[in-house]
């Protein structure tokens, strides 16, 4: 249902753009030939295109509101797990153990001030405030 309404909305949008481009601008526009009287005369075409623009614009706005309401009320019961992350403990890389006093602290700016052989990466989500 949503896809059908979306296609109708796209058709209305295309028709609205077409009708607006067909209207006579101050410089001339895509003027239509024909007899000086009747529906497609200069005045008759202008009235028709003006009315068509109003009707299509109203339909466009109403369909936009309807699609927004349908999208807001659309509830899915399935959970997409395609972007699920792996636990941090499974991806932790062990650090090399230094010998003696050659390297009293682990290298790197992220481990500055941390004794060698220890890691700063938590193995669970206890460091996250909302995980408790």
Descriptive report:
The protein is an all-alpha fold and 132 residues long. The protein has three helices and no strands. The longest helix has 32 residues, at 42-73. The radius of gyration is 33 Å and the shape is elongated.
Could you list the spans in which at least 5 consecutive residues all have pLDDT below 50? 33-38
- Helix segment tally: 3
Order of helices and strands: HHH
Beta-strand percentage range: under 5%
The share of residues in helices is 40-55%
The radius of gyration is 33 Å
Secondary structure category: mainly alpha
Outline the biggest β-sheet.
Answer: none
End-to-end C-alpha gap: 42 Å
Overall 3D form = elongated
Mean pLDDT: 73
Q: How many extended strands? A: 0
Quick summary:
With 132 residues, the protein is mainly α. The chain is built from three helices and no strands. About 5% of the residues have low confidence.
What's the SSE blueprint?
Elements: H1 2-22, H2 42-73, H3 88-91
Helix pairs in contact: 1-2
Question: Any key phrases for this structure?
Answer:
3 helices, 132 residues, mainly alpha
């Amino acid at each position: 249902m949503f896809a059908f309404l979306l296609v109708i909305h796209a058709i209305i949008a295309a028709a609205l753009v077409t009708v607006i481009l067909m209207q006579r601008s101050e410089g001339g526009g895509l003027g239509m030939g024909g007899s000086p009287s009747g529906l497609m005369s200069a005045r008759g075409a202008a009235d028709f295109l003006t009315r068509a623009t109003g009707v299509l614009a109203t339909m466009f706005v109403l369909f936009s509101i309807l699609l927004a309401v349908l999208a807001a009320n659309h509830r899915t019961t399935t959970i997409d797990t395609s972007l699920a992350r792996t636990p941090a403990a499974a991806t932790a890389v062990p650090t090399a153990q230094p010998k003696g006093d050659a390297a009293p602290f682990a290298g790197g700016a992220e481990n500055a001030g941390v004794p060698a052989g220890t890691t700063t990466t938590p193995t669970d989500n206890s460091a996250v405030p909302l995980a408790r």
